[in-house]
Structure formats: C-alpha cells, structure tokens
Specification:
- This protein is of the alpha/beta class.
- The protein has one domain: Metallo-dependent phosphatases (Purple Acid Phosphatase, chain A, domain 2).
- Helix content is 22%, strand content 26%.
- The chain has six helices and 16 strands.
- A six-stranded mixed β-sheet has the order 6-5-4-1-15-16, with helices on one face. A six-stranded mixed β-sheet has the order 7-8-9-10-12-11, covered by helices on one side. A two-stranded antiparallel ribbon has the order 2-3.
- The longest helix has 14 residues.
- The chain is globular and about 50 Å long.
- The mean pLDDT is 95.
C-alpha cells in the first residue's frame, strides 16, 4: 500500500536562458518566454511542490546575468530549489550566483524520508558528460551512510541510451562505473536527468531512469538525426512516498511556438 503523505518534487531542465532575454533565442524560440510559460504552469499546481530540481543547462550564454535572471524569476515561487550544471553551464559562476534562499547549492539532502544526491557531469568545453572518480567515491560514501532509505539521484546527462542515435553519442561517457555503484544499492529508486529535451522512461534492474522535456525547444524522440519536435515545453512531477513508492508524470505548458526549421546540429 502507498503511504499517505508524499513529497512533491518538480523537475525543470534545460532552460537555456540568456543575459538579454529580449534577444535570447534558441533555434528561433525565445527561451525566457517559454520558461515563463512553464513557471506559470508550475504556479497553478495545487498543492505546490515541496522541492524544485534544476537539472542543468540553465544558461545558454554562461553569463552571471543569465543565472541572476533565473534566481529572480524563481524567487516569487519560494520553493526550496537545488541545481546541477549542464554542458552549457559555467559551474564556477553558478556557485557564485545560485547560493541564496530559496536556491541552495547543496548536493545532498533529505526530505520526507527520501534522500537526494546530485551529481556533477559537466565537462568544460564538451557536450557529453562525465563523472569524476572523486564524485563516484562521494556517491558511494553517501549511499553507505543513507542505508535503506529511498534515494533519488539527479544528474544532467543520462546514463542509458534513449534510442536516438545522434543524442546517444553525447550522453554520459563511460557510465559503467556509475551504473555499477547504483546497481549495488537497492535503495536507489530513481535516476533523473535532463539534456535530451524530451520525455524518456525506462526501468533497468528495478531502477527507473527518467528524462524530462526542456522548458524551451524539444528534440524529436527516437530519430537517428537531429530534428526538432513540435511538442510543448514542460516539466516533470514526482510524488515520493516515505515507503519508497512513487508516481510521476509530465506536465506541459500551454505554449505554441515557431522554431527555425533550418536548424541543424546541437
């Protein structure tokens, strides 16, 4: 039986914000406008989420102003917010800017009986991701301390292929050491990622691997080549119960946009 009182988690990913929102477009889509539509959807949810996870590519131009813009837009929600860097982000700038309530730079925390572990996969100058040996040691040490409590791991780059040839080349490189650790600890229930600008959901060895639509442009699922999708931007909601059960769904914003049909490559 599912427990009565879940923790409600919202995942927002791949916002690709710019220092100048009026000029900031990705493949023809104004990224702040689409982000605001997703925030509007988020603000309509009842009850409001207990936690907001930002899973990378927060900025497109890696400027302090883009991160300050994000912090300003999120402040009205007043939801405890945690983040990780994506391949388009500048980690040192993020650490300087995104560290004031309600935004926290913590990478390990507990709420409602669930533990959240946030891994950095940012490799400066590279689109693909990688987890350092130091991060792997940190992860395993955390999992040993946590014991049998349910765990959600968040990172920008997915560990498992999503059946899209071009995107599968730029996921997490050398995922085996991380997968080996995850598979040794049955308390890991969910591995949550961004990066791929689409919804993906698979279960391997009892662990759910999830990705989430971007708040701006979408990539067409299962296409071997780079193709933009017409689906609306969105977010993911997760209801996490203390006994380790959970439910999850995608919420999409009411936003119709025109993208650059000549766009190619990422």
């Amino acid at each position: 039986m599912i427990s009565k009182f879940p923790v409600l988690v919202a995942q927002i990913t791949d916002t690709h914000l710019f220092a100048n929102p009026t000029q900031g477009k990705m493949y023809g889509v104004p990224t702040e406008t689409s982000f605001l539509k997703v925030l509007e959807k988020l603000g309509q949810l009842q009850p409001q989420p207990d936690v907001l996870l930002l899973t990378g590519d927060i900025s497109q131009d890696e400027t302090p102003e883009s991160y300050q813009r994000l912090a300003s837009l999120l402040s009205a929600l007043n939801i405890p917010t945690y983040w990780i860097a994506g391949n388009h982000d500048c980690l040192p700038i993020m650490e300087q800017v995104l560290n004031s309530a309600p935004i926290s730079s913590q990478k390990s925390f507990e709420i409602g009986g669930w533990y959240f572990l946030l891994l950095n996969t940012n490799v400066p100058g590279c689109v693909y991701g990688q987890v350092s040996p130091e991060s792997l040691k940190w992860l395993e040490s955390q999992l040993k301390i946590i014991g049998n409590k349910p765990v959600l791991i968040a990172l920008h780059h997915p560990l498992v292929k999503i059946n899209s040839e071009w995107m599968d080349r730029i996921l997490l490189h050398e995922p085996e050491p991380l997968l080996n650790i995850i598979n040794r600890y049955p308390q890991v229930k969910i591995v949550l990622s961004g990066h791929v600008h689409q919804e993906f959901d698979t279960e391997i060895n009892g662990i759910r691997y999830l990705t989430t639509p971007s708040t701006c442009i979408q990539f067409e699922p299962k296409n071997p080549e780079f193709v933009l999708d017409k689906k609306s931007p969105g977010l993911r909601l997760l209801s996490l119960y203390p006994d380790g059960n959970y439910t999850t769904k995608i919420e999409r914003a009411d936003y119709i946009y025109e993208f650059d049909i000549t766009a190619s490559g990422y």
